[in-house]
Design a protein that fits this description.
Layout lengths: L2 H4 L2 H4 L15 E8 L5 E8 H10 L3 E4 L4 E4 L8 E8 L6 E7 L15 E4 L2 E4 L7 H4 L5
Parallel strand pairs: 1-6
Antiparallel strand pairs: 1-2, 3-4, 5-6, 7-8
Length: 143
């Protein structure tokens, strides 16, 4: 079976790509940011329709902050932007995977490369990634 035979026709030639994303009741879709070079998962965030559109237009990741109820251009304050190399949609159409190049190698607001810096070991969470830069230094604040 060729790739085109395995791909549903609606996904193969459709020009209404944005309509194929399944947003939840709040109008959001989960988005996973993965390092383009290493494949390491760096972070998870939410996107609304406008965030997806802006991400595609800018070529940099734009998310939706649920706590602030507004768009969040990743790295706008810190300089740790995410250049988007590829966007994938999962089989159910309800999760996005962004293959990104992380500026400064810091995706997490804690100053680490990845937000997934704790690993469960022997019934306790162990920090396994070092802080590359203090959060205060990232956002221009005193620690």
């Amino acid at each position: 079976m060729t790739e085109s035979q395995a791909t549903p026709p609606a996904f193969r030639e459709s020009r209404d790509w944005l309509e194929q994303i399944v947003f939840d009741q709040a109008g959001l879709v989960p988005a996973i940011a993965q390092d383009h070079a290493t494949g390491r998962v760096l972070m998870f965030a939410w996107m609304n329709r406008e965030a997806v559109e802006r991400t595609v237009k800018l070529g940099e990741a734009v998310y939706f902050s649920r706590s602030r109820q507004q768009l969040w251009h990743k790295g706008e304050q810190s300089g740790h932007t995410q250049k988007v190399h590829e966007i994938r949609l999962d089989c159910d159409g309800d999760v996005l995977l962004l293959s990104i190049e992380q500026a400064g190698h810091i995706a997490c607001h804690t100053g680490r490369e990845s937000c997934f810096y704790r690993r469960l070991e022997d019934g306790a969470w162990r920090v396994v990634d070092e802080v590359k830069k203090s959060p205060g230094a990232i956002y221009g604040k005193q620690d």
